[in-house]
């Protein structure tokens, strides 16, 4: 059952329609039935379309790329009133990922450029083989309570594992016109080339490995009653998901990167729409540098991004439909209520190291940490035989020699800052009530469905807060306490600038609280008219809305206050500082959706259809930096004392319109 715009009985938080998937029932069969299938899936170029093992960049090993899968479902009626359905599937799919990205810049130090005439600043190549394994098992039990009612209990287990070995090579010509040394080649560019300045280029070889296991467990209990006059559906459900990012315990860095060993300049030549056809690299003596030679790199950093994210979804609904027999054409009315509560708990844990060499020499050769299996590969776009760095070999070498990577005090502070900043929690509750009626006058040639839906959303979020000026002593009137020379006085417990003591004063975990509640009425009208037996026209209208993302619900505030005197603080023309905030008061956007379609059904069961649509959107989202007014602060739910500060956040930016058409043909090829 497909609708292109929502009906009153379906959620209104979308810009399109919905597909109602009906699950299997144990009463569909009179006897036991087992159906199953096996498959082989292969992706990739010719070298990987083989049953033999071939190189993979994840953990630098050989794996098979043509992989088996299977699926089954077993229906077992146990008498006339009870039955079960068991289904499951397993697949493991390999696919290659090759792409490039160009970055164009409109500004630079000493560079005469503009938005109308930008220059190609950097070019990125990605070679990223990936495997995704999915396994699922579902069980459903149906009990026919009465002649017209069925009670169903179901559960599902889903497991997925993603293994990615994304390898990135980045060429950056720089954004500074002056060469270093001054006798070198200066920056220049035109439509077909970028000539980087001597000493200002950057070359990065970045190997990444990711192991991401995901678990989802779900259960539901549903009741259905249908005696031809009354139709009742009720259900409750719960699902819980867990996503991990594993690196250290999986035996690998997340990223291990190297950069150019000596100063370089980079030139992009014969630039076309998506890439330069030639890349030239030179050292300060204007001698060519080979990016395929690992001796031209030095070790840079290693990092891990372990973390655990959990989420849960609880839902319940009740729908009651009554057929009206007193009218001369088929008519029914329907009402329903529902509640959905979703939570997300994010706990990342990023770690960073600096390459120090096996004997304290950061310029030590990188050849021992290069890919030994995934080498001499074709990375597409004309790139071959790149000596990629191996995160797993780098991690194994670090475990064998802890001097290979070191942590600076600044990295320890950055790790804790990242952990607190990204530790977030959100809960969203949506309650809905709707009324819907359906009618089929003119001997059923016209079908009308209309009604209205009410939805109320409540969001609560917890995020971190930052106040960089918490390290300074303040006077009773709120100004900073100062020394005789006018310098601000630091609190003794703040420690040195950039220290862990300072961070624990300026950043607090999950202390910023956000609460938001909004509601609305969302009417809709659907008309279908049979012009002929196999030709029909549809017209539909629905008012819908879109909620802010969870990332906009979870509070996160960073305060950067300017160092001002008491006189300057009293001057309304002076910017007092900058607020970077997530706007937890962001309103949902709304849309009026219109759709008209024509459908022709062929004698052989095919479909030819065409439609036009229009969507008028109000209060869509946009980001901006501006001087805060009282109205801006009220819209972002911030204290009025920040009037006159720079405010960087997401706002409801205005209106938009989307128009289009689609055409589709569907025909079964079976006889």
Task: Walk me through the structure.
The strands form four sheets. An eight-stranded mixed β-barrel has the order 25-26-27-30-31-32-29-28. The chain has six helices and 32 strands. Helices cover 7% and strands 55% of the residues. The protein has helices at 391-400, 409-421, 500-506, 550-553, 566-569, 630-635; strands at 2-3, 18-19, 33-42, 53-56, 61-64, 66-77, 82-95, 98-105, 119-127, 130-146, 149-164, 167-172, 188-190, 193-195, 202-208, 210-226, 230-245, 255-260, 264-271, 276-283, 297-324, 331-355, 405-406, 424-439, 446-466, 507-532, 535-546, 557-561, 577-581, 589-601, 607-627, 646-666.
Can you summarize this structure?
With 671 residues, the protein is mainly beta.
Please describe the structure with a list of short key phrases separated by commas or semicolons.
globular, eight-stranded mixed barrel, four-stranded antiparallel β-sheet, 6 helices, mainly beta, 32 strands, 671 residues
Topology:
Blueprint: E1 2-3, E2 18-19, E3 33-42, E4 53-56, E5 61-64, E6 66-77, E7 82-95, E8 98-105, E9 119-127, E10 130-146, E11 149-164, E12 167-172, E13 188-190, E14 193-195, E15 202-208, E16 210-226, E17 230-245, E18 255-260, E19 264-271, E20 276-283, E21 297-324, E22 331-355, H1 391-400, E23 405-406, H2 409-421, E24 424-439, E25 446-466, H3 500-506, E26 507-532, E27 535-546, H4 550-553, E28 557-561, H5 566-569, E29 577-581, E30 589-601, E31 607-627, H6 630-635, E32 646-666
Parallel strand pairs: 25-28, 29-32
Antiparallel strand pairs: 1-2, 3-6, 4-5, 6-7, 7-10, 8-9, 9-12, 10-11, 11-16, 12-15, 13-14, 14-19, 15-18, 16-17, 17-21, 18-21, 19-20, 21-22, 22-23, 22-24, 24-25, 25-26, 26-27, 27-30, 28-29, 30-31, 31-32
């Amino acid at each position: 059952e497909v609708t292109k715009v929502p009906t009153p009985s379906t959620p209104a938080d979308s810009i399109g329609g919905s597909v109602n998937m009906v699950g299997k029932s144990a009463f569909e069969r009179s006897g036991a039935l087992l159906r199953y299938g096996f498959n082989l899936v292969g992706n990739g170029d010719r070298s990987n379309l083989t049953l033999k093992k071939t190189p993979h960049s994840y953990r630098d090993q050989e794996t098979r790329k043509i992989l088996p899968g299977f699926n089954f479902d077993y229906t077992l009626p146990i008498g006339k009133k009870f039955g079960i359905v068991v289904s499951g599937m397993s697949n493991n799919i390999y696919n290659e990922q090759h792409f490039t990205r160009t970055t164009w810049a409109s500004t630079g130090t000493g560079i005469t450029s503009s938005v109308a005439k930008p220059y190609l600043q950097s070019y990125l190549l990605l070679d990223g083989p990936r495997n995704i394994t999915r396994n699922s098992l579902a069980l459903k039990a149906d009990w026919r309570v009465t002649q017209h009612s069925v009670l169903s209990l179901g559960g599902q287990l889903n497991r997925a594992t993603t293994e990615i070995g994304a390898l990135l090579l980045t060429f950056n010509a720089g954004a500074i016109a002056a060469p270093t040394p001054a006798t070198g080649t200066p920056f220049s560019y035109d439509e077909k080339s970028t000539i980087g300045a001597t000493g200002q280029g950057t070359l990065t070889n970045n190997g990444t490995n990711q192991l991401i296991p995901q678990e989802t467990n779900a259960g539901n209990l549903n009741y259905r009653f249908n005696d031809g006059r009354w139709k009742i559906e009720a259900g409750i459900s719960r699902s819980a998901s867990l996503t991990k990012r594993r690196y250290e315990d999986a035996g690998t860095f997340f990223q291990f990167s190297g950069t150019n060993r000596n100063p370089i300049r980079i030139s992009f030549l014969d630039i076309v729409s998506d890439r330069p056809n030639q890349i030239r690299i030179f050292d300060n003596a204007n001698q060519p540098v080979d990016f395929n030679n690992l001796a031209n790199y030095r070790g840079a950093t290693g990092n891990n991004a372990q973390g655990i994210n959990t989420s849960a979804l609880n839902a319940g609904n009740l729908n009651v439909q009554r057929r009206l027999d007193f009218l001369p054409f088929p008519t029914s009315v329907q009402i329903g209520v529902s509640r959905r509560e979703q939570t997300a708990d994010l706990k990342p844990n990023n770690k960073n190291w600096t390459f120090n060499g096996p004997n304290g020499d950061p310029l030590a050769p990188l050849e021992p940490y290069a890919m030994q299996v995934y080498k001499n590969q074709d990375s597409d776009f004309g790139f071959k035989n790149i000596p990629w760095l191996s995160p797993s070999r780098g991690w194994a070498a670090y475990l064998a020699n802890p001097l290979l990577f070191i942590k600076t005090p600044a990295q320890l502070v950055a790790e804790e800052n990242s952990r607190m900043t990204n530790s977030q929690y959100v809960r969203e509750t949506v309650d809905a009530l709707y009324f819907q009626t359906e009618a089929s006058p003119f001997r059923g040639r016209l079908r009308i469905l209309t009604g209205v839906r009410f939805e109320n959303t409540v969001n609560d979020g917890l995020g971190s807060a930052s106040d960089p000026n918490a390290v300074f002593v303040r006077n009773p009137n709120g100004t900073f306490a100062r020394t005789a020379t006018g310098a601000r006085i630091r609190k003794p417990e703040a420690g040195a600038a950039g220290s862990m003591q300072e961070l624990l004063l300026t950043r607090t975990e999950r202390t910023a609280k956000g609460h938001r509640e909004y509601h609305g009425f969302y009417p809709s009208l659907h008309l279908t008219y049979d012009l002929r037996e196999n030709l029909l026209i549809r017209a539909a209208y629905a008012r819908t809305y879109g909620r802010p993302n969870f990332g906009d619900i979870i509070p996160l505030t960073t305060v950067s206050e300017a160092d001002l005197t008491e006189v300057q603080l009293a001057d309304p023309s002076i910017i007092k500082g900058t607020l970077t905030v997530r706007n937890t008061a962001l309103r949902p956007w709304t849309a009026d959706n219109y759709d008209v379609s024509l459908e022709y059904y062929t004698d052989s069961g095919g479909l030819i259809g065409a439609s036009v649509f229009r969507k008028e959107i109000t209060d869509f989202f946009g980001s901006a930096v501006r001087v805060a007014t009282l109205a801006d602060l009220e819209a972002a739910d911030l204290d009025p004392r920040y009037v006159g500060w720079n405010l960087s956040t997401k706002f409801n930016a205005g209106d938009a319109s989307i128009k289009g058409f689609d055409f589709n043909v569907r025909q079964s090829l079976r006889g």
